[in-house]
Amino acid sequence: MNLDDLADFHAGYTAPYLAWAVAHHDRELIAELLEPLDIISLRALAVVLAAQVPRPRTRPDDGVIDEVAVRRAAAGEHRGPLTRAERIEAVLLMHQQGARRDLISRRLGVSWATIGRILGPGEPRRRESA
């Protein structure tokens, strides 16, 4: 069996069953699916599985701001990465909405120092209690 056929087989049979077994913590099925595979089959399966993992949205940081992504990130609904310009806008939006720095930091994945740089020197630098 050539590599393309092997990958097609794993994409149609092994990968879906393996994903189900992992999601349901079925160790016996995982072992049953993986045990007969040689190194070439394991590598082909790994490629198939890696191709099924969704990749986050990435874009060059060209200064263009996706306002929907900014609002969703500020609301805690956005899962993909933001550009630098979008992170700045999201920090400003959350600050205008009265969000505390600890929430801004957690929700947007930015440091307190970054928030301080974005908000400027007039903002208090102390950590609020949770």
**What's the total helix number?**
7
Structural class: mainly alpha
**Spatial extent as radius of gyration:** 22 Å
Overall, the morphology is: elongated
Question: What is this structure, in a nutshell?
Answer:
This protein is mostly helical. It has helices spanning 3-23, 27-34, 39-52, 67-74, 84-96, 101-108, 112-119. It contains seven helices and no strands.
Describe this structure in words.
- This protein is mainly alpha-helical and 130 residues long.
- It has two domains: 3-52; 67-119.
- 62% of the residues lie in helices and 0% in strands.
- It has seven helices and no strands.
- Helix 1 (3-23) crosses helix 3 (39-52).
- The longest helix is centred in the N-terminal third of the chain and has 21 residues, at 3-23.
- The radius of gyration is 22 Å and the shape is elongated.
Please specify the SSE layout and strand pairing.
Blueprint: H1 3-23, H2 27-34, H3 39-52, H4 67-74, H5 84-96, H6 101-108, H7 112-119
Helix pairs in contact: 1-2, 1-3, 4-5
Observed structural traits:
2 domains, 7 helices, 130 residues
